[in-house]
Amino acid sequence: MAAQKLTLAKGLNSGLRAAMEADPKVVLMGEDVGKLGGVFRITEGLQKDFGEDRVIDTPLAESGIVGTAIGLCLRGYRPVVEIQFDGFVYPAFDQIISQVAKMHARSLGALRLPMVIRIPYGGGIGAVEHHSESNEAYFAHTAGLRVVTCADPADAYWMMQQAIASDDPVVFYEPKRRYHERAEVDLDETVGAPLGLHQAAVRREGTDVTLVTYGPMVKTCLQAAEAAAAEGISLHVLDLRSLSPLDTGAIAEAAKRTGRIVVVHEASTFLAMGSEVASFIQQECFYHLEAPVLRVGGYNIPYPPSRFEEEFLPNLDRVLDAVDKSLAY
Amino acid sequence: MAREGDAVTDVHPEGVVRHHENVVTPPGEHDITDGGPDMVQFLDAEGNRLATNETNAPYAAIVEALTPEDGRAMYRDLVLVRRVDAEGHALQRQGELGLWPSLLGQEAAQVGAGRAMRKQDYAFPGYREHGVAWCKGVPPENLLGMFRGVNNGGWDSNENNFHLYTIVIGNQMLHATGYAMGVQRDGAVGTGDESRDTAVMAFTGDGGTAQGDYNEALVFAGVANAPVVFFVQNNQWAISEPNYKQFRIPPYLRARGFGFPGVRVDGNDVLATYAVAKVALDAARSGQGPTLIEAFTYRMGAHTTSDDPTKYRVAAEVDIWREKDPIKRMRGFLETKGYADQEFFDGVDAEADELAARIRKACQEMPDPELPTMFDDIYVDEHPVVAAEKAEFVSYHASFEGAGH
Ligand SMILES: Cc1ncc(C[n+]2csc(CCOP(=O)(O)OP(=O)(O)O)c2C)c(N)n1
């Protein structure tokens, strides 16, 4: 198959389709995923082609969705569940934290829960409350879950298939404000999926400051790098892709490369992914550092009403401001 | 794909809820236009007063006691609430609001419930209860802030005993129940004092009845015999999912299983919703515990302004429900009875125009909030992290001033 220009949304849709074609045990579940194709149309057309038994419109009950997905896993299925928006995962929190994350260990390895929990996340779309959150840290904090996020259509396509193929439960974060971004995706199995699900990717090579980021902020960081280049500053951009586990090798390499690191994400900074990355870097790369690791993220307030979100979310100015601070050391 | 003129039936391979039979049926036709013989109803589609029958008899006295003036007031509410909604919709289309969830078609359910509440009764809404807000005296302008994105609530719920809108489906059902448990502990039930005895009303949709929180609320309310009335607006759809994807037995019949009565009422008949709500609220206030009311109605518009219903439902279904319009019906009633004349109807329409203009102006003039206020009201007590971030934010912005930024 040749390369195609796809949106991130279509990349996810194609990835789901490929996984369903490859394995009849893959089933999709969630609110409105059938005829409507989900509120973001990620599952569009799949019920039509795979039937109601494989693309299941569930009752409006997130704990029910994840809890029954556990049962389906125990019966040999590979459910991919859709949580409609980030802020609606909390009713399912108990099932995910108490059961999904721990069942493999509790059974001493006998039971597997090969489930993918898809969560459209992040802000910037002018939504009402509970529709713009970045709650990845809650899940990354919990052992037993893999947490990943894609940033472009190719990753959407390949990572979705890898997540479904994984025998571990995967929380799959989709950057909703990037759903409509387009890029070339090579659908060829022999050349596609160059990276494992657990690996970080260098998105831009640079020598002065490293930006460590993921999901919706990858694009913002690449734009910042572009802007910085115009001023003669060379930024290195590392896309984490996997939030748990972290690709510590890639982080160390990127950190050592410039000795100056800024971590960028949408989530509030307190006890977030940035805290973990910064702590890892100071522990493992201390002698390579030219400046303290800085963090740029959402403020430590609940995600604000949409008229404030441009200020709440990291933007080019705030990223570049942090770069300047780092360089000033 | 739905097309204009498609049949209203939707064949579901595993059997469906036939509402009037109240049980799971074998595969067949899905009829969501018939509320069945258990449904309390006083007005037919033209607004003729239906004779007293076994189902509506317990509520007939309440309807009899209504004066022509009450009838006109109800009609006025229906029209004004519809106008508030239409204005919200228009404002969204013009980019003044980010989103609007329309109540079109559900006016009678909400006005009946809202008017049956007393001042001290407390309402816990979802996000579509603009009609209840109206009856509780919340200025409609207040509802716009959240949808415009300037706040996440925007009114003091204790001013009118109307709680903030709740977006996460089901959450508020438990809050209502807990509030009712508080009312109980305050001794504000069963005293016989009309101004003291208090009931609580919790609102959700048919989809909401699937949530854990909803079901837990019903368990708590039943166990506590709390003075709460659960008001389910069964508008037949939860975004794209018809309600046979949410339950196999209608909500009003499930109430029994939680230990209290359930009633189905014609949600497009304001006399019926008022009477049924009044009986349930009186029961709650007098210490007889919870009731579940299922208002059988229809969501005439899209789920919200972000939704496209042509993807999942057929136009013919909407047409059938248009015939059951709550305003047309109440108007028919007032006219047949000679309770209102043209001058009255024109007066209400003029009032609706004024209200619409007022809301529009208020919306357009709603100031964008001062940016640093996003750090306010996160905590009650001083919080050093938030305080430091606010200070940093302010000085960061000050650094741009005069820099051509
Ligand atoms: C916990 C939760 N999950 C998902 C959603 C997204 N959502 C918003 S409205 C809605 C459908 C609600 O249907 P229903 O309860 O029937 O009420 P209606 O909107 O029809 O009044 C869904 C799934 C949500 N708001 N909260």
TrEMBL record, chain A:
Protein name, as recorded: 2-oxoisovalerate dehydrogenase
Ranges where the Transketolase-like pyrimidine-binding domain occurs: 6-181
Entry GO MF terms: magnesium ion binding; oxidoreductase activity
Source superkingdom: Bacteria
Essential cofactor(s): thiamine diphosphate
Keyword Oxidoreductase: yes
InterPro entries: THDP-binding, Transketo_C/PFOR_II, Transketolase-like_Pyr-bd, Transketolase_C
Keywords of the record: Oxidoreductase, Thiamine pyrophosphate
Species this chain originates from: Luteipulveratus mongoliensis
